[in-house]
Here is the input.
Amino acid sequence: MSVSATVLDAEAIGRLLPHRPPLLLVERVTQLELGPQTAIQAELMLAPIHPVLVGHFPGNPVWPGCYTLEGLAQTCALAGLAASREGPAAENSAAPPTVFMAAVKVKLLRPVVPPGVLVYRARHTHRVGEIHRFWVQAVFGNATVAEGTLDVAVAGRAR
Here is the structure.
């Protein structure tokens, strides 16, 4: 397992996302490339004692697929929010806008059985109004566990 540098740590993520544990599903951002096709890579360390796994399933922990989707959505939100905080306009902006999942076309390919690091990857492909589409992928170990597209809607942005 390689060790990646942290681009955004838990404190920075907490300033950008409204989520809190146990529903904050991104612990650190390891890559962030801003631009027309913003790309991001984020991680979550999964231990068998994670609160979600206490009940899913006792004695045989399996990470719920819907939580993988939520982690991917939070990663997309971080990409968009980090990009929106760049430049002179960011200095005058209030709290970051809220980002919601609008559409999900992601295939869950394999179960995620902890322990290990769940890696989320997202690349912005285009936008229509306040809807942004991302190509997304989740990797656990050396295997892709989810892949597809995710649309997010941005609400509450000052105009």
Q: What stands out?
A: DSSP finds three helices and six strands in the chain. Confidence is low (pLDDT under 50) at residues 87-92. The domain at 10-155 is CATH 3.10.129.10 (Thiol Ester Dehydrase; Chain A). The chain has one domain: 10-155.
